[in-house]
Amino acid sequence: MPGPKPQPVQHLADYRPYPFTLSGTHLDVTLAPRGTIVRARLELVPGALPVDLVLDGGRGLDLRALTIDGHAPDPAHIRRDDETLTIAAAALPSAPFALETEVAIDPQDNTAFEGLYLSGGIFCTQCEAEGFRHITFYPDRPDVMTTFRVIIRSDMPVLLSNGNPVRQEPGLAEWHDPWPKPAYLFALVAGDLVAVSDRFTTRSGRDVALNVWVRPGDQDRAGFAMESLIKSMRWDEDVYGREYDLDVFNIVAVDDFNMGAMENKGLNIFNSKLVLASPDTATDTDYERIEAVIAHEYFHNWTGNRITCRDWFQLCLKEGLTVFRDQQFTSDLRSAAVKRIEDVQTLRARQFREDQGPLAHPPRPDRYEEINNFYTATVYEKGAEVIGMLKRLVGDEGYARALDLYFDRHDGDAATIEDWLLVFEDATGRDLSQFKRWYTDAGTPMLTMEEAWQDGTLTLTFAQSTPPTPGQPAKPARVIPIAVGLIGPNGDEVAPTRVLEMTEAQQSFAFEGLGARPVASVLRGFSAPVMLRRQMDDATRAFLLAHDTDPFARWEAGRELALSALTDLSQGRDAGADYITAIGALAADDAADPAFRALCLTLPGEEEIATRLASLGVTPDPDAIHAARDDLARRIAVAHQDLLARLFDDMAVTGPYSPDAQAAAGRSLRIAALGLLGRIDGGDRAEVLFGIAGNMTERMAALAVLLRLGRGEAALRILHDEFGDNRLVMDKWFSVQVMAAPPDQAVAVARRLAGRKDFDWKNPNRFRALLGGLAANHAGFHAADGSGYAFTADWLMRMDAANPQIAARMSTAFETWPRYDATRRGHAQAALEQIGILEGLSRNTREMISRMIA
Ligand code: PHE
Ligand code: ZN
Fold this sequence. Notes:
- With 854 residues, the chain is of the alpha+beta class.
- The chain contains 26 helices and 30 strands.
- Residues 126, 128-129, 259, 261-263, 296-297, 319, 375 line the site of phenylalanine (PHE).
């Protein structure tokens, strides 16, 4: 079939500095839904040699005027194409000059939500990665940094931009951002907004006004976001010594947003689902996520804004580090053990999955067609893991010294991964040339371990290998920090955690002077993002689940038990007895953290089971996996009926709802018990709980149980009556129906919901609720008749015309298609090919499709 057309590829090796210096940007924006006028004045300093001035900006910009130092150049010196405007060197002064342009743009037509757009009557912008070029002609690249002065003209009551306010009068506001920044950090907001406000005094005495701006009526759901912001500001001072650097910090919530949130300097813009929360509308998971993302965006002020990226290949420089920092923040505020387990689960579900398929790429890619396709789990989550490994290798003190040096040396810079690694080398004296492979090589290393015991010495022998990934057939050995502890036969720890540094393809490490043969607890804290394979019988796993002192390793032992049972069951082999016994003992341990017990009681998802099978070279059968998981859950429920019923009752929280970690932990155990009990009580407990619960956490959990049993109709109606006009709750209402539908009904449910009037598909959250919900229903999406693929493909094609970023990102639902059976592969490939030949397909989706069917 004719594959998608080739398009221009960006290569890391082609990087060249911009030939002009930009010493100031002035914007004057007159807002109107149609015909917004943007006047820009760029103060440019030419380099030594005369060169053409190339600015980014395409056909969407209606150029009304252009002058150089006040004079219009000869039109023969100006060229435009679909993406740029070029002024010939001959028309440019050799001394510093001012380029002024006036363009008209149409925010109302902007359904891609990139550049300036309207969301529910609010004007807002999204410029990362390359959105500023849809606002005005500009050198839209992160290494061109300057100060901004911005005038906004509009009747809207609230007019915001980056930096500090310098003038506010009716119909006009002027902002000045003293910190040089690249255009991707520019933001502008205008709307009928109200603020929840507070103040923060920095360690050195700066008084900062804090505002969380929302639509009138939403103020009572913005308090938690504000609390989270204040905690983040304090934490970054305490832990990293980083202070805020402006007089105001504004956060704005909008309903239409392609991503979670955006770190624009002094003016963070958020998807409203990551700001608005009240106990009756948001779950514990929502609260935790809001806290983490508020922190993430705030932390970008230093890791991203004060120090930015030289080019987009370096994206993980800011994202990996900022994710790592927000993970540290959450572990400090909540349970470190639980947070680590959750992060590993996310990494495996999203990043290992990405690594296993045709979209695998290194944390620092060296080529791309559309940068928006690289805001991935590999860049973010694996980028954070790589920093965690660095910290483990150089120690906490070495890490602290390196970070101080990084902020000192690179403040104000647009930096690279090389800069970052050099800081660690200079601060610690360590050679990181081999470590750098973690940034440049794709794929999840497979680590196998063998044990030998002789005369009081335990020898662990590891071998590493990384499967081929697109463009990288063979990979040299990496540095792998392997944290190991030893547990004696009586359950006591006989050797505390020690980090082994593996640098060879195969390497042995000896533990000497041991009395009796211990059990090795390996990869503690998930010390490296690898897949560990070791020969271990279920009894030894159960022993570790009972005795390991490292909470991650302990949970992992249970996980391994569950996965081995599930992979066996899904291939028709009887299994699971040891797991059921061991998990019961752990769940009954009232001394253990309820959140930890909940995590242990929650079975791996079907997707994770499929990923495990594929890594073992077995073709996953989605229906068999679903049946195996159902079967194991039901057997756990039968075996531990009384215990689960007791936990469900004991963990009932009385008194007012609080989203804090401890209260949420109790609810998570309660919900885990409820889910299992639902397998045998016909959903009676869930029905009662749905009716009486005062919080969304328990109601959603109960609803999911009811839907799985096909008796969710009444609950759905009640929820709709209560919250039909609350978009965020209705997003949940859409997604849970598809996610919890029995697999053979999932596509039909999705199709019915897509036909509803309130399926406002152009809203990214609503679209993701439905299509993402289907993709999360593993056996439903991968229905053997191809209906899940076809349905998804239809919607991707429709979405692509409106919002290419969302279509391209959602296309990753297909990223694992090559691992399934021939029938499914045939259907998936046909669906992808159908998208690939669509007339006018965006660059975003075209790149994704061509990588997936390469
Ligand atoms: N930089 C944002 C973050 O990580 C994510 C983002 C990327 C938002 C692109 C919008 C567009 O917090
Ligand atoms: Zn980020």
